[in-house]
């Protein structure tokens, strides 16, 4: 597969959103940034990203709510979802998994750690060689 993997990111904190965008673009990905779960839900069916990353705590809709809705929509149900959270407790991780999330990344993370995890996930679904 020679196309550049597309990643959709929903993160309400601008600095973190920009850092994720910069990090993943620098790693060679096509990144679309949104400010909240509602925006991500709106854009995902059209964009058809290879991966969706959702912050947990966002206005309008939590990452868990957005994940549940993405997973029940036939157009987006097969897209892997990564939950980004500052909360690394087992309960939070379990809630993410219960909402349909495929992976969980705890903030703060080092940019190279983020890139490495994203590449592993994309390789796992065959979106990256």
Question: What can be said about this structure in brief?
Answer:
Helix content is 44%, strand content 19%.
Descriptive account of the structure:
- The chain has 129 residues and is of the alpha/beta class.
- The protein has one domain: Response regulator (Rossmann fold, 3-Layer(aba) Sandwich), CATH 3.40.50.2300.
- It contains 5 helices and 5 strands.
- It has a 5-stranded parallel sheet, with helices on both faces.
- The mean pLDDT is 92.
Whole-number count of domains: 1
Structural class: alpha/beta
- State the major sheet: 5 strands, parallel
Low-confidence stretches: none
CATH architecture: 3-Layer(aba) Sandwich
Number of strands: 5
First-to-last CA distance = 7 Å
Predict the CATH topology. Rossmann fold
SSE topology string: EHEHEHEHEH
Mean pLDDT: 92
Could you give me the name of the CATH homologous superfamily? Response regulator
CATH top level assignment: Alpha Beta
Give the spatial strand order of the biggest sheet.
2-1-3-4-5
Question: What's the helix and strand layout?
Answer:
Layout: E1 6-10, H1 14-26, E2 30-34, H2 37-47, E3 51-55, H3 63-72, E4 81-85, H4 90-98, E5 103-106, H5 111-124
Parallel strand pairs: 1-2, 1-3, 3-4, 4-5
Keywords:
5 helices; alpha/beta; Rossmann fold; single chain; 129 residues; 19% strand; globular; 5 strands
């Amino acid at each position: 597969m020679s196309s550049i993997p597309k990643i959709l990111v929903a993160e309400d904190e601008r600095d973190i959103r920009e850092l994720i965008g910069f990090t993943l673009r620098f790693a060679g990905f096509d990144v679309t940034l949104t400010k909240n779960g509602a925006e991500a839900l709106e854009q995902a069916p059209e964009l058809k990203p290879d991966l969706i990353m959702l912050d947990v705590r966002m206005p309008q809709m939590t990452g868990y709510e957005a994940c549940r809705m993405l997973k029940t929509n036939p157009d987006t149900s097969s897209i892997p979802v990564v939950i980004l959270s500052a909360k690394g407790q087992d309960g939070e991780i379990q809630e993410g998994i219960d909402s349909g999330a495929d992976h969980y990344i705890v903030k703060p993370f080092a940019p190279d750690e983020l890139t490495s995890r994203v590449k592993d996930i994309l390789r796992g679904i065959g979106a990256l060689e």
